[in-house]
Structure formats: structure tokens, C-alpha cells
């Protein structure tokens, strides 16, 4: 089965246009890791941590940017279905080579002029985690509207620049609630399902010390929930509003935690961790 799929991968590879083929040809890097085993051990740690915290296990997103379709198939064969990619050209080249039941998550910087290519090129696109301005949301909304999937809303997360570093994308934390509100009001084909951040590297933090950027993201989620809820209730007070806001907050996701810091992120409430190098090895 796996061999067949890989053969299918190889033959479809030839049908790619020059651009994506160049992308794929440079993929791989120093591999020779047992991807299946790393998926299994990561999953086991996710589950034991969840049991310790009395919560459902967080989603494991395998971040596969720059990695070959063959390597992704190794993860797939180990049961992995959620994959994260960063580049539009790369995800549209890879997605058709891989099984249709993969749930693709876009986690890279997105320009509004690439939204259509992303939505139309990846039928299995399940979430765009990196919406940080209304222009990008509107471009995605328009792309979904003209796509075959227009009856199903596209899930999006707001990327928040919690560390304030210039190198990081994302809206300012204090603007997340207003952005969520604008998207909810103007983008009928999008569903705001959570907030996402990268955060600054914190090598000095000990294992159980909280990361201030993750705390900022959790606070943003509360603000987003309160704003969306107030809007849904016509802005009027109402007894049930704090409760409704809390219920919404519990449904909104926190996408935070990568190879170096995902355990800490989960202790701080992450519902979705994005793990690349710890599964697929270092990127070339
Ligand atoms: C590359 C990337 C990851 C994965 O990083 P690792 O350190 O390799 O786990 C996670 N999230 C985003 C947004 C990324 O760009």
C-alpha cells in the first residue's frame, strides 16, 4: 500500500510544472530518522501529558516544510493526518501527490495575492493559522466563495506577534479582538477557530516555567471570545454573556508550541502543537 502510494507520488511528480518541481528537487536534507518512531513517541508524550493535566490530548501538527513527499508518507503510514506547511508554492505542489484525507494546515506568512492559489490548489486545506490582517482574510474569503468548497467555511486562526519581535509576523496582541470581530462581520466563508503564535525562543526557561508569550496568547483568546460574544449578543449586557464568552473561549483553540517548547505550551493550555524538526529532522 505504502509502496503503491509512493510509486503514485513519483509518477505524479513528473507532471508538475517547472516551479514546484524545483521546490521538490531541493527537499530532503539530512534525513535517515525513523519518522514513524518519532511520531509514535511524540504522540505517547502528548497523551501522558494530557492524562497528567486532565485534558484531551492536543492535536499534533507535523510541520513538513522542505521535506519530501516520501518523508510525509512515512508519517502518514504511522497514522499522522495533520500536516503544516509554510509556503504556498510548496503546499500546492505536494498536496496532489499525497492522500486526500490529509488535513493540511497553512502556517506560513501569507500574501493576499496568493490566497486564491492556496485555496484552489489544496482541496484538503483545513485551516489557515496565519491570518494577521483583514486584507488576507478578505482574500481567503473571496477564494473560498469561488471554490468548489464554498458551502463549507474555511477555518482560520489569527496569528499574534506575542513577542513583539520585528522578524515575526502577526497582529499586535491588543488588535486581535478587533481583527476577529472584523472577520466575523465581513467574511461569511471563514470561521475564526482560534489564535496562533510562535513567540520568542526562551532557552533560559526551565521546564515548568511559563512562557510570557504563551500567556499573552491565552489572554488574546479571552479578548477574542469576549468581543465575538458581545457582538453576537448585539453588544447589550445580558446575564448570560460572561458565561457565553467563557463557553466560546473554551471552544477557541490555542496553536502554540514547536519542537523546542511544545511541552511548556501544553502546560499553558495549547490545543495544537506544530512540530517539525523533532519529527522530520533538522531542515537543510
Ligand atoms: C517551521 C515552523 C514550525 C516547526 O518548527 P520546529 O522548530 O521545526 O518544530 C512551527 N510553526 C511554524 C509557524 C513554523 O514556521
Radius of gyration: 19 Å
Number of strands: 8
* Low-confidence parts: 1-26
- Spatially, the strands of the biggest sheet line up as 7-6-5-4-3-2-1-8
Helices and strands, in order, run as: HHHEHEHEHEHEHEHHEHEH
Can you tell me the overall shape?
A: globular
Quickly count the helices.
Answer: 12
Largest beta-sheet details:
8 strands, parallel
Distance from N terminus to C terminus (CA atoms, Å) equals 29 Å
Quote the beta fraction: 5-15%
Bound molecules: pyridoxal-5'-phosphate
Overall pLDDT score: 89
Helix content: 40-55%
Protein model, in words:
The chain has about 280 residues and is of the alpha/beta class. Helix content is about 45%, strand content about 15%. The protein has twelve helices and eight strands. An eight-stranded parallel β-sheet has the order 7-6-5-4-3-2-1-8. Strand 4 (about 125-130), helix 7 (about 135-145) and strand 5 (about 155-160) form a beta-alpha-beta unit. Helix 1 runs antiparallel to helix 4 (about 70-75). The protein binds pyridoxal-5'-phosphate.
Amino acid at each position: 500500500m505504502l509502496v503503491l502510494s509512493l510509486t503514485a507520488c513519483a509518477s505524479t511528480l513528473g507532471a508538475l510544472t517547472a516551479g514546484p518541481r524545483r521546490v521538490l528537487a531541493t527537499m530532503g536534507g539530512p534525513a535517515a530518522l525513523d519518522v514513524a518512531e518519532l511520531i509514535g513517541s511524540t504522540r505517547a508524550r502528548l497523551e501522558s501529558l494530557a492524562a497528567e493535566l486532565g485534558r484531551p490530548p492536543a492535536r499534533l501538527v507535523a510541520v513538513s516544510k522542505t521535506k519530501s513527499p516520501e518523508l510525509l508518507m512515512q508519517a502518514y503510514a504511522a497514522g499522522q493526518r495533520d500536516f503544516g506547511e509554510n509556503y504556498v508554492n510548496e503546499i500546492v505542489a505536494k498536496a496532489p501527490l499525497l492522500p486526500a484525507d490529509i488535513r493540511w494546515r497553512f502556517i506560513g506568512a501569507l500574501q493576499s495575492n496568493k490566497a486564491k492559489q492556496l485555496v484552489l490548489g489544496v482541496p484538503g486545506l483545513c485551516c489557515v493559522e496565519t491570518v494577521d490582517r483583514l486584507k488576507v482574510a478578505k482574500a481567503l474569503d473571496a477564494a473560498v466563495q469561488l471554490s468548489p468548497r464554498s458551502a463549507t467555511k474555511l477555518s482560520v486562526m489569527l496569528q499574534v506577534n506575542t513577542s513583539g519581535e520585528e522578524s515575526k509576523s502577526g497582529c499586535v496582541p491588543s488588535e486581535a479582538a478587533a481583527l476577529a470581530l472584523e472577520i466575523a462581520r465581513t467574511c461569511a466563508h471563514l470561521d475564526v477557530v482560534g489564535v496562533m503564535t510562535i513567540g520568542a525562543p526562551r532557552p533560559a526557561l526551565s521546564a515548568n516555567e511559563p512562557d510570557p508569550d504563551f500567556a499573552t496568547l491565552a489572554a488574546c483568546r479571552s479578548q477574542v471570545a469576549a468581543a465575538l460574544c458581545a457582538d453576537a449578543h448585539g453588544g447589550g449586557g445580558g446575564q448570560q454573556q460572561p458565561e457565553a464568552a467563557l463557553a466560546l473561549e473554551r471552544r477557541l483553540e490555542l496553536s502554540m508550541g514547536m519542537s523546542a517548547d511544545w511541552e511548556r505550551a501544553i502546560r499553558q493550555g495549547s490545543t495544537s502543537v506544530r512540530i517539525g524538526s523533532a519529527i522530520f529532522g533538522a531542515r537543510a
